[in-house]
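Dear colleagues,

As part of the handover before I leave the project, I'm documenting each prediction I ran so the next person doesn't have to rerun anything. This entry is a single chain, and its sequence is reproduced below.
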Amino acid sequence: MRRTIPLTPIGFVLLGVCLSGSVGAGESGPYGPPAQPTQKQPTSPARPPAPSVIYGVCWGEDAKSRYLSAVFAGEAPGDAADVSMRQGMAGVWKQAFGRYLIKEHNFQSAAQCGAFATRAEAEAYFRQVGPCPRGPGRCVETGWAYTAPAKGPEASLPPASNYAFCLTPASSKREIYFSTVQPKAESLGPGQFESSFVAYLASKYGYKTSATCWDSRAAMYIRDQAAQITRARQSKIDDYRSAGYTVIETDWAFTSATSATSPTPPPVASTRPAPIGLASPAQTVPAAAVAAAPQKVTHAVCWADFDPRTRYYSAVFDGMGSDYADWMPAFKTFLEQKYQYTGQVRCNKQPSQAEAQKYWDNMVGLARTTSLGDGSKAKIIETGWSYPQ
C-alpha cells in the first residue's frame, strides 16, 4: 500500500537528528561498532553457519521527497546476533531498495537500510525514521519489502574455502566468455586456473585470448562465499549485456590435466579497460611455467565500490611482506575514520609496480566513464592511502 503525506521543514530537521544519531559509522545503532576482520581465512572448508531471520527498514531521501519501506523480515546466512553479517545483509537490501526507487520514483540520491536481530528493534527504529509526518513536502510509504532472489547455481556447489569464476577481456568483437563459479584449490600456482580456461576456449570455440579469474578470498568474501561471488559474476554479466556485449556462458570446469596438457594460446590485447573489481588481463603463461616458483608480489591496490555512487581508491603501494589480511582491514579502518564508509573493501596484488599501476588506471578509468542507472556518474575519490599508512 502506498500513502503520500506532506512533510514539514521541522519534520525534516527532526528526521535529520534521528538519522545522524542512528547510522553514523562507529556508533551504536542498527549494527553497533563496526567489525574489524583481522585474521586470515582457514584453508580447510568450514561448515556454513545455520541461517536465521533478521529484520530490516530502508529509506531514501532526495531534495524533493522521502521514501520509506515497510518493516520486513529476511533470511540471513548466520547468527542474527552477528554484527558483521547484519551489516552485509543491510548492504544487499540497500542496493535492492535503491534500484527500486530509481525505477519507480526516479530517485536521485542514496538509499539506506538498517538490519536488526529482532522485529521489535526494527519496529522501534521505524518509529524513529517514520512513519511519514504531516506537513508540506512529499513523503511516500512505499510498502517495499526485500524479496530474496531464487537460489542460483551456488546452491549445488560443494563446500570449499575459495571459489572463482573466469572471463575474457573485452575485445573489438564485443564478445565476453564467462565460466561458471567453481571451487578453486589453494594449492594452484599463479596463472594455472586462467590457463585452463584459455585452453578450453581455444579447443571448444577456436577463440585465442587471455583470461582473468576473480576469486572469493581475494575479494574478502568471509561469509556465504559461493553466493556472494555468484552474485558478483551475474552483476558483471548484466553490466556487459547492458553495454551491448554478447555474453557466452560456458560449461568449462577446471581440471589439472587440462591446464597441464592443453596448449596455451598467446594473449590478445584488450581494447577496453577491465570491469571494476576484476584483474586486468595478465599474460597467459604455459603450464610448464606455472609449475615454477610462485611469483613475488611487489605492489597492490585497494578500493571500495560497495556504494555505486561513491567509490574510493587507494594509491599503488608496495605489498612486499604483507597480504590481503593486512591491507584490507587497514584500508577499511581508514575509510571508516575519514569518510564514514562502512561497506566492503577489496584489494588486488600484482608482480610489479607497472602492472599494479596499469590495473589501477584501467579500474579507475572505467569507473569514471560508466553511467549509473539514472545516467549520472559515480563520485570518484582518490584517497592516496597506502600500506602501511
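The CA atoms of residues 198 and 210 lie 6 Å apart. The chain is about 30% helix and 20% strand.

All the best with the project,
I.
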